[in-house]
Amino acid sequence: MLFRSHDSLISRITSPELEELLDGGSVSQGMLPKLRSAIDAIDAGVDQVHILDGRMQHALLLEIFTPEGIGTMITKEARP
User: What HEC string does the chain produce?
Assistant: First the structure.
């Protein structure tokens, strides 16, 4: 599932940017635990976290094997 902020889809975001969104209160209650867990994983040394819509058929394959992906990728720092 693409993470949404103010009705715009976010396909890629850094952990610090995500923390700003969480502090700003622009995240739905249902996404809070998922996003906080993603930040915890990044802080623990995971390179990237992907948030996907598990109801979408082949979501994991589409995220991995398409250039644009279908989910939200969270990283520690911006990548070139």
Answer: CCEEECCEEECEEEHHHHHHHHHHCCCCCCCHHHHHHHHHHHHCCCCEEEECCCCCCCHHHHHHHCCCCCCEEEECCCCC
pLDDT surpassing 90 at residue 47: yes
Say if residues 7 and 35 touch (Cβ distance below 8 Å).
no
Indicate if the pLDDT at residue 73 is higher than 80.
yes
Chain length of the chain: 80
CA-wise closest residue to 72 among 5, 9, 8: 9
Q: What's the whole-model pTM score?
A: 0.81
Through-space distance between the first and last CA atoms of the chain, rounded to whole angstroms = 23
43, two tokens: 């802080």
The region, left, alpha or beta by phi > 0 then psi within -120 to 50, assigned to residue 79 is: beta
